[in-house]
Design brief:
about 200 residues, mainly alpha, 2 domains, 7 helices, elongated
Length: about 200
């Protein structure tokens, strides 16, 4: 359940418990005649979180996230290396192979995202901190995928070779995508290995 749903359920339980407490009290109050009513303390426990039904195949697919999550990272880092070398060595012909690597990077976000969504449902059940880390990780990875998708769209629109401002925007998009993937990967590592795995 989402936090708004939990809050709604808790409020309804609290209102019901208060109504029952008032209904059990005699109409005259405590009977002491001092005009002050007795107040009952009712312990209200929050409703247990609903555990989504996850089948065995979905659970296995979610646990593959640890393997497939490295594909977009690897492709993106290879792309940065090739683009950097093509600039340093003045090899504009390398833009063709770089486009293939970019397509592989964008395509590899799909299995990583799908397995991550399945895994996040399972991980977020026990700890609020872990669920928040998972949401940040997910959101950053979606931003990284969007940045890389934007870079791919720009490359496809601009033709076989990017030049001028298009080249600058393209390089900024893949650089930003790599930076966001690095931060998101760090959050994923904290989820798996604990918050004290690295000192930052």
């Amino acid at each position: 359940m989402r936090s708004a749903s939990r809050l709604t359920v808790s409020c309804v339980v609290l209102l019901l418990a208060g109504s029952l407490a008032l209904a059990e009290r005699p109409p005259g109050g405590s009977g002491k005649g001092d005009g002050v009513e007795d107040v009952e303390t009712v312990e209200v426990k929050p409703a247990p979180a609903a555990v989504p039904h996850v089948g065995a195949a979905q659970r296995v697919a979610g646990r593959l996230h640890a393997s497939v999550v490295h594909l977009p990272i690897g492709w993106l880092l290879l792309l940065l290396l090739l683009e950097g070398l093509s600039i340093l060595l003045r090899k504009p012909a390398w833009q063709g192979p770089c486009l293939v690597v970019l397509i592989a990077a964008v395509a590899s976000f799909i299995p990583a995202a799908v397995s991550g969504f399945l895994r996040l449902d399972e991980l977020g059940q026990g700890s609020t901190e872990l669920a928040l880390l998972g949401l940040r990780h997910r959101n950053l990875m979606l931003i990284a995928a969007a940045l890389c998708g934007g870079a791919l769209l720009l490359r496809l629109v601009s033709g076989p070779r990017t030049r001028g401002w298009q080249r600058g925007v393209y390089l900024m998009l893949i650089g930003a995508g790599a930076a966001v993937v690095t931060i998101a990967g760090h959050l994923g590592g904290r989820m798996v290995h604990g918050s004290d795995f690295l000192p930052f």
